């Protein structure tokens, strides 16, 4: 209207003033028009907005009907990253007759009204999505999020490929299963795809899955099975900014170029243990902000070019195989807040350049090989809240630069070699410290007072150091401390009564110190929240009274071993929460009260009454109780009579070293047993046939040192998990049961000291885990023969077939297959062969008897690095095979008491770990190889009663051996024998075996006919008398008659033998 008016010809005929008035009026008119137009749009907007199309509203309501609403459907998923408070059943309020565009979780196009977004994440949905689901009738969907629900292993149907408008697709943590269909590749507009954490989901080839997804920016497939997929084709996704493939089973070499994708900011490959590769070299700056290669097989050193990752905020390389030193250029990553290099093979010193990482909040360098002093860099890291330096080789004192980190809440430096005292109270400011772990170092001095007064400190672990005092002289009260472990130190003096001021303690361990005096157990009632108390192995005398009742309402674990207790405290019967009780190594006698062995509704699962003077069970009539402890240790008491049978719920049961007798009753009812030790008693009769299969969980069975008779039952079942079987020192007869071959997990088989009559059990050679085979002192016979294949007994480390009737040649081919004896183990981190079954710090160790260094010893703890071969006292003949020299980790070798001939193999000089070598009582000839002087750990050497000649090698350990090592070899000379080696004839080789046999009728006690002629030459009378004496007497007669004394050489070389490798009883 205004424009028409202004264009009218009459407007130009007006004078100037009138024109001005008209223009003002027109301008006001225009403004009014705009206001009216805006108002009309606001008023009419609802009538112009499109409603949700009826067909789509119906489809959504039908989709709702397919599911039930269950809170656990969203709360049970481990990887749901939603706050539980935000999870709710969004579809509950969907009602027919209302606009679906207003429904919770639904987004519509503002113009067309089509449903373009559906977010039902964490909506408590439980049900199944079928291939013809109503969901696929929403073709305009651009965003679909069904994460964190429970779809009952539904498939991701190919029909999802019809939703071609999708840009964001999230089905994570919702119990989908099966293969990801290749039709997903039809979703060419996808920017974000998240199918992670669906445990049974697998992916087809990368090529089919991502061939059209060129716009993809975010790809999350964590937990999807990709073990048959090669990730190299990911290089085609140049738009990727976020790539997460954790726990996918990826294998092979990961292409390092992926880290150079131009837009990549997040890469997560966590927990792909078979995925390897080296850390890539960066030629230019990268946009990476988050890099996680933890728990993979990535290896090699970190390159200096790591400083190109200038945007990096989090780097996690833990649990991989990286090595070398940390490059100083790592200190250029000034934006980093999280750095985890733990559990690798890094070594050297921690670079001081890490002081540049001023934004760092979490630093973990634990479980590596770092050494030297902990660098004084932490004063420059004011934001540090978590620091882990444990399990390295750090030395020196506790770093004082740590004591002013005001934001530090977690500090671990355990398992290092720190020495000296902790800092004194006046310089410490750690107001946020909650967890402090300094155990297993060499710290000393007094435990400072400030540790007990930090306002937020909850857990303090100082065990296994050398602290000698506890500074609790001042009165204090801590409301924060919940757990204290000071065990294994050298704390002396009376029990620190100030400990009762820690009113919120739940966990207190003071065991294995030198605390002394009398302690009234009732004092601990002041600690009302106490759940775990261990006072074992001090010099305390614990006093208890029957008046103590219900004063420990929360106590679950009570350890009072070696506390001079003479009676089982009656008040223990009132502790309703008690689960673990250790009263071992006290002076308790009498009977075990019924409430301990027949618990009714009680919950005690661990009971150790071992090493006392207990004699039996109160009111036990031979009927197993309905409930008894899961772990029951009654060993080393004075129990008599028949065996107490616990309830079927018992898993670990030991009564070794008692005086129990009779046959085994009802033992086969213990169907959940894992560990059974009945050794060192007086049990008799037959071994029950069920012992081979009564418990499918049985891992350890020890029946040694009893009087069992008859044959071993042939009932060992397929799938047996038996790892240790010891039936030695009984009176068993017959043959070995062939069903032993079913025990594929068997590691230790000890059948020694019985009367078993059988051939060599070559059929055991296929047992893949067998490490110890003891057949000594039985009636085995025949030839051992040769292995059936090259993998026979490949893990064998100890074999003892001594004192049997084996014949034939030594089994040279078996020697060539014993691979575990060919490798030298210098890592002492796993010293003992044990099942590693542990409960409340309880270990069991396998035992065995072995002849070492000339004496029979019992190994209470079998070192896993110990190797031994004992074929002594049989009827083997022939030569010692040179292949014995391949067993380079041998510590004990015994071929004595056989009929072996030939020379001592030079290859024995290769056995550098050898500590005991016994070749005595054979028919060996020739010289002692000088190469044996290279056996610097050799502590026992015996070649007596052979036909050896020539000089005895000198040097090293050979200076320590006495003449008894060589007696019966008249051709030997040199130290320590009196016979010198001046005559060349004395060093001659003995006659060949055929010549020796031909002249044997002229030999008496080692002297030939030449000796007789010499007697005649020296004179008839003296010669005859002397000759007769020689013929009829042995060397002992010469020593007595002519007072000849062999010189005893007791010197030892400066190199100490590795005698620590053998642990004997009582040592």
TrEMBL record:
Location in or out of the cell: Cell membrane
Domain Disease resistance R13L4/SHOC-2-like LRR: 288-463
Domain of life: Eukaryota
One Pfam short name: LRR_1
InterPro entries according to UniProt: Leu-rich_rpt, Leu-rich_rpt_typical-subtyp, LRR_dom_sf, LRR_R13L4/SHOC2-like, RLP23-like
GO cellular component: plasma membrane
Keyword Secreted: no
Major subcellular site: membrane
UniProt xrefs under SUPFAM superfamilies: L domain-like
Transmembrane portions of the chain: 1013-1031
Family: Belongs to the RLP family.
Protein's name in the database: Putative receptor-like protein 12
Originating organism: Davidia involucrata
